[in-house]
Amino acid sequence: MLYPLKFQPIFKSRIWGGTKLHTQLGKAVPKGETIGESWELSALAGNESVVANGTLAGKTINELMDIYKSELLGKQVFKRFEGKFPLLFKFIDAADNLSIQVHPNDEIAETKHNSSGKTEMWYIIDAEPEAKLYLGFTERISSEYCADLVKNAALEQKLQEYKVKAGDAFFIPAGLVHALGKGILLAEIQQSSDITYRLYDYNRRDSQGNFRELNVTDALDAIDFENNFSPKINIKGEALLCSNYFNVNKLSFLGEITRDYSDLDSFVVLMCVNGKVEIGDLKIAKGETMLIPAILANITLKAKKKTEILEVWVDKNIPK
């Protein structure tokens, strides 16, 4: 029988990683490594999340999908994504700047990598003073001009800069050039893909002393040069985001609330970004994630202090 599921985090060493996954989120990261990412729930080959609680402990997310199918995913999600878990959930600690990069859309990713594209959302958990990120261009530019900017290490000058604080949220569709600045701890919700094209990486070298690989040609093909929307999410009320790939609510509460999922026909993932919540005899604290199988119609959340949860699901009304 299915029940609310917790998974073992998968830690990723990154050249730009820091210590906040341990100091602020309490994660038992490997000692002596620079950990930049905690993959909370992943179905990607080679990075399959493993159940950490209950009678299903030790099974991978993909094994669960093979066994429970639509009971886990929801009928429409199972059909739309052909039995594959469609999303990837992470916590990210950027002690240094990430590369200036872009992700491909579904069409490009399918053609080049036999993969889905990568649209994502960032929710800022903590930000140091003056922390910032870059999202999109300051003006309409051409592919040729962008290539010149890359060649002359001037791309950063043409990117929109956003100073950030805890509680800010941003939507990054595939094709949007972006870069996460240093001093930011965030939750990331994205399509199930690990494809990134780097345009510029501050001339950094890897542990072997080599310059990190750039993917300029692929990146120029992937950039949506017509995109001119503001990626910062205007937060009003509970709903943060409705998109073709995932919907996100932010639940801020103290005490007890009940969530009715009977009409969703989708799994729900809860990411705790502040406080601690009890769900039956289980708890998730800041920096922890839980999967609610689609077959569970409702859950009750109890918090003894103010708690903030990102609630994520796939909309049944959006066709593939």
Can you put this structure into words, describing what you see?
By secondary structure, the protein is mainly beta. It folds into two domains: 213 residues, Sandwich (Jelly Rolls); 74 residues, Jelly Rolls, CATH 2.60.120.10. Helix content is 14%, strand content 38%. The strands form six sheets. A six-stranded antiparallel β-sheet has the order 1-2-5-12-7-10, with no helix packed on it. The protein is globular, with a radius of gyration of 19 Å. It starts with 9 loop residues before the first strand and ends in a 7-residue tail after the last strand.
Strand order, sheet with most strands? 1-2-5-12-7-10
CATH superfamily of the largest domain, please?
Answer: Jelly Rolls
Class computed from helices, strands and strand pairing: mainly beta
Averaging pLDDT over every residue, what do you get? Answer: 95
Helix share of residues?
10-25%
Low-confidence stretches: none
What portion of residues belong to β-strands? 35-45%
Q: Note the run of SSEs as H and E.
A: EHEEEHHHEEHEEHEEEEEHEEEEEEE
Per DSSP, the total helix count is: 7
Known CATH architecture of the largest domain: Sandwich
Compose a concise summary of this entry.
Helices cover 14% and strands 38% of the residues. The chain is mainly β.
